[in-house]
Amino acid sequence: MGNGHGNLKSTIAVSLNNYLDAGAIVAGASGLSLWQRYLNLTEQHLGWLNFISANCLGAAIGAIIGGFLADRYGRKFIYTYNLIVYMMGVLLIMCSVNFTMLFAGFLVTGISVGIGVPASWTYISENSDISNRGRNICISQMSWGFGPMIILLLGMLFAPNGDLFGWVEAISQAVIGADAPQNAVNVFSSRMVFLSLFIVAFIAWSIQRTLEESNEWKSVSQEAGAADKGLLHDIGVLFSNKTAFKTVCYLATIYLTWNLVASVMGFFQPHIYETAGGVDNETSNWMNCIQWAIIVATTFLISLIIDRTSHRLLYIIGLLFAISAWVMIVGIGVNGQTGLWTFAILWGIEGGISVQIFYALWGSELFPAKFRAGAQGLMFFIVRGLSAVWSIVFANIYGENGEGFVLSAYCMLGLLLISLVVGVIGCPDTRGKSLHQITKERYGDEVSY
To answer: Are 115 and 78 in contact (CB under 8 A)?
Structure first.
């Protein structure tokens, strides 16, 4: 662990991965209609793009690979190479002229996002002090909130009716000519949004490749030796330890039940506001943008107290806001701005005290360093993979025009209640303890590899 200034600097550098993660999801979702018209895509095409994107299966595949790579070759190994993959995926999307290129770009970007997630939360915890580990995880979550907020703003500015669309038109004419079809010109607004992600990814890669390796990983790596027995062996080691297995079940349960709700809102929320809520696209985008601003502000406030406040209490408060949001929108009704704004504010506050904060914190605390990232990668694989399936199920429940919204809302409430009950029952006591102390309490002096 470094000093406070040092670990804050590395936290900010690594947290850019969360910006790129959430940014890729929102950039993909916000530009779907433009790509649909440009490439004449069907609803099935759009479903496949979501299924393999950073929101679902792409990230799931990347996470299980990236987690065990980070444990085997180090956290710095991920930061040296992974964002190059991300930039390749974004570049593919920017240059897409057919569905195959767009599909490949979404897949490569999603895999890169998944690879980076376990290493990021692990590295942040391993380079934090006892007094600021929770704060640093919150900082990474603030970056996760800034991503959608900024991408939504850019999307509105670059949109065909946006204030900066004149720039988009000028760039498109320089690239594809002045006589290009209007749909080909309009899709350049999405290309510009992805260009912003490419620029941020390049900056993040330039900074992250200079980071020092985690001292805790170096220490464990020297003890374990350099033998490479493969991914399946590493997964077997994780599941052979009863404490680790129980921890995987606990964390996967609370994160999955919450994420099934959050992943739907991350991708379908604008669609829900416009179909079930009946508001126009611009109003929907502003609601989402303001909601993300609330998430960032709330997360900042939580970062000031999380290392001095009961984690169980904060966990309960966050999920009570989440449940209240869905109860209110069912009670008030979705067909009106009062219900939608109430939901947006409550869900925004929940996002600032979300289950993901505690999953990221506990996931990096409750496993030994030798399979800390791998365990997170495995859980992320499970959660994002099932979220991909759930997105298809949800679409069928919700219906084409939101006729199944109430039933969908009750499903969301059920999932959030499970996350609340299981989370409270199994809430670990880790606040104020070092990672070494937590590992010793849970696994004893020796952890068999």
So the answer is: yes
Residue listed under structure tokens 């290309």: 191
Query: Which helix H or strand E contains 427, and what residues bound it?
Result: none
Structure tokens at 397: 């429940």
Residue 276 identity: A
Instruction: Give every CB contact of residue 278 below 8 A, 6+ residues apart in sequence.
Output: 335, 336
Residue 422 near residue 257, CB atoms below 8 Å: yes
Using one digit for the tens of pLDDT, what is the confidence trace for 25-72?
A: 888 877 888 898 899 988 778 778 877 887 778 888 999 899 889 988
In 3D space, the residue among 440, 386, 419, 361 whose CA is nearest the CA of residue 139 turns out to be 361
CA dihedral 336, 337, 340, 346 (to 10 degrees): -140
| 8-to-75, 87, 217 alpha-carbon distances in Å | 17, 25, 19
CB within 8 Å of 445: residues ≥ 6 apart:
none
Could you tell me which residues come within 8 angstroms of residue 160 by beta carbon, excluding any fewer than 6 positions away?
Answer: 186, 189
Helical (H) or strand (E) element with 300 = helix 281-303
Place of tokens 């979404």: 106
Would you state the pLDDT for residue 447? 58
Mean pLDDT of 381-402: 79
H helix runs in 304-336, sequence order: 311-332
* CB-based contact 292:299 (threshold 8 Å): no
Q: What angle do CA 393, 394, 397 make, to 5 degrees?
A: 90
Nearest residue to 262 (alpha-carbon basis) of 169, 325, 192, 193: 325
Distance separating alpha carbons of residues 259 and 147, to the nearest angstrom: 18
Asked if residue 367 lies in contact with residue 121, where contact means CB atoms within 8 angstroms, the answer is no
The Cα–Cα gap between 323 and 89 comes to 36
Residue 226 is classified by DSSP as S
Beta-carbon contacts of 42 under 8 Å, excluding residues fewer than 6 positions away, are none
Amino acid letter, 422:
V
In degrees and rounded to multiples of 5, residue 139 shows phi and psi of -60, -40
Residue 442 near residue 366, CB atoms below 8 Å: yes
Phi and psi torsions of 445, nearest 5°: -75, -30
pLDDT digits (tens, 9 = 90+) for 401-412: 667 778 888 999
